Amino acid sequence: MSGTSSPGPAPDTLELAALLCSRVCHDLISPVGAIVNGLEVLDDNPKPEDRDFALDLIRKSAKTASARLQFCRLAFGAAGSAGAQIDLGDAQTMARGHIEDGKITITWNLPRLLLPKNRVKLLLNMLIIAQQTIPRGGTLTIDPIGDGETMGFCVTSSGLNARVPQNIANLVSASSTATVDAHAVQPYYTRLLAQACGLSVTLTPDGEKVLVTAS
User: Fold this and answer.
1) What is the dihedral of CA 109, 111, 113, 114, to 10 degrees?
2) Residue range 98-126, pLDDT digits in tens
């Protein structure tokens, strides 16, 4: 992913905003580019089978782009005014639309209730991190830690060759001094969300699983 390198481990607010925008654009480039490619095929007066292929590509890519936009809006966006709360049921819908792709499935064991927006944004960003611990696919299981508005979360990643990416583990650590660039902004942002909630995030190997915990 392309992006501007940070001059230090703690970007200022303007640079953090720019890095997050770079991250969102990176997530959308692939499906939007596929839509453009499909339209170019249609512009060339294709044979019927090529036209059907192009239309199928456009449909699938538009669906993917929409799911990613909705997820990013919730995970990285303002998501309402200060003090706003978000329905965990809506978070579940966004997470499934963005992450479940035939390789990864989600087991959602959280109750349906309203939580402060930063806590829900933290959960969605934990799912992005957990997704990266099972590069060959598998299952993400989300369980609550505690209850009510002070609820924490545990995301258990299960899959072939599950592992803890050390760079991500370092970036979510409050003691990290790693440089924050466009590659690293998402785990760094997860750390900021956890701190805003009075929590800390850890990545722990557990046999053939990885636990991503906010408590």
Assistant:
1) -30
2) 999 889 999 999 999 999 999 999 999 99
Q: What does the pLDDT look like over 49-62, one tens digit per residue?
A: 889 999 999 999 99
Rg of the chain over Cα atoms, rounded to whole angstroms, equals: 18
Instruction: Residue 29: name the closest of 48, 54, 3 by CA.
Output: 3
Q: Tell me the domain boundaries of the chain.
A: 13-214
Q: What is the mean pLDDT of residues 167-191?
A: 83
CA dist 106 and 78 (Å) reads 25
pTM of the model as a whole: 0.87
Distance CA 36, CA 65 (A): 12
Most confident of 48-52, 182-186, 208-212: 208-212
Q: Which CATH number fits domain 13-214: 3.30.565.10, 3.30.450.20, 3.40.640.10, 3.40.50.1950?
A: 3.30.565.10
Predicted local confidence at residue 170, as pLDDT = 86
Q: Is the Cβ–Cβ distance between 182 and 4 less than 8 Å?
A: yes
